[in-house]
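Q: Could you write out the predicted structure for this multi-component system? I'm mainly interested in how the pieces pack against one another.
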Amino acid sequence: MSGQNELTPPEAVYLGIKNAGIDFIVSVPCINLRELIPMIGADPDIIHVPVTREEEGVGVCAGAFMGGKRPAMLMQNSGLGNSINSLASLNRLYGIPLLMIMSHRGVEGEPICAQIPMGQLTVPLLDTLCIPYFLPDSKQEATEMIFKAVETAFDKKKPVALLLPISFWRQS
Amino acid sequence: MKRMDAISEIVKKATNINALLVSNIGVPCKELHQACDTPNNFYMLGSMGLASSIGLGLALALSDRKVIAIDGDGSVLMNMGSLATIAWQAPDNYLLVVVDNGAYGSTGNQPTATSQQADLAQVAKGAGNIKVYEAGTKERLRQILQETDDGIIVVRVLPGNADVPNIQMSPEDILERFMAEASRPSGSV
């Protein structure tokens, strides 16, 4: 593959997912995940499970981890709010790793006012939950940080998040 | 029949087919632990509602292992979308048993919606699950468990908890022991 600058944002995330050995993904859609989710669905080496709600996805990923998989969840940051009890009373309690790849809405460039409250609360909630998060500045950094994030999740036996704001998806 | 009686039947089935067994939060975990504590058991101590989801993830990850999840009516009502996801994925190595006592049995037997109009077998069918079974007696439950290793069973029981002690294992130890068992090749003893 040629230079990373030629990749689209979803291609850069997909490359990071592949490099990190992610082989099990649950997803809840966001408009910014519209290209990435079909790429995951078409990959024969990744089990893709579309779920109805993020907390459900946390459970499915925990089961997949117990079965030896390296799981990740594709989600919108609003779904963090739907997942908090399980991230604490399942992942934190037992020491179960999980990578959450979040489309971070409600930040600069957001057209929908209802996204703003959770957009502002996402980082404080992650801090409160002691969940490490990664904030890539470029496509190349996103690819690299996914690898680091998965390493962190498995080393520390806890959930980690990669936050991809509106500006990330608008890069050419 | 109470929950403990249903769990005893499920344990016999799990032992027969060497299934991994995921148990729902609260008293069901303690009853399973009392009935038969083995490394095949994952005791879900928190995350109410997610037993069926954990079981689904396990079954999809380990396609050559049989997986059984024991869930409850209150918990399935809290994560009803799971029934639709299970129908979509439909792994043939996964059996979900919903022990329906019409009550939140671990918190004082407050009535759930299944004590009124709600019918979780109909919900499971409406969500797209093909193999949905219903049992109201121990004999019928035993018969269904002999017939199938997959699908969803809704077994109606009376409310009431067995007098069983707390689980003394730490969450880390429960997980480590369970994962060691789950990583063994299928059928090896």
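A: Regarding packing and overall arrangement: The longest helix of chain A spans residues 139-156.
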